[in-house]
Amino acid sequence: MTTLLRSGEAAEKLDITEYQLYAKTREGILPSVRIGRMLRWSDDAINEFIKSGGKGYPGDGWRKEN
Is residue 37 part of a domain? Predict the structure, then answer.
């Protein structure tokens, strides 16, 4: 059974702030699960993300604003 992490736990595991965690989730970089109004992050998915070296924006790594 997969463990679901709360925002603080997932952010700590990735060594980022909760703000960055939510931003990366909104941008589709980190997968999440919605339970009602709450978001949770799969421990297995976070571990896979770490093993794969993460992923960022295509190109030079800077987000282009419209």
Answer: yes
DSSP for residue 30: S
Nearest to 54 by CA among 14, 10, 20: 14
pTM of the model: 0.77
Beta-bridged to residue 42, according to DSSP, are 4
Mean pLDDT throughout 3-8?
96
Asked whether the beta carbons of 45 and 5 are under 8 A apart, the reply is: no
Asked whether residue 45 is assigned to any structural domain, the reply reads yes
Question: Has residue 56 been placed in a domain?
Answer: no
Contact present, 11 and 21 (Cβ < 8 Å) = yes
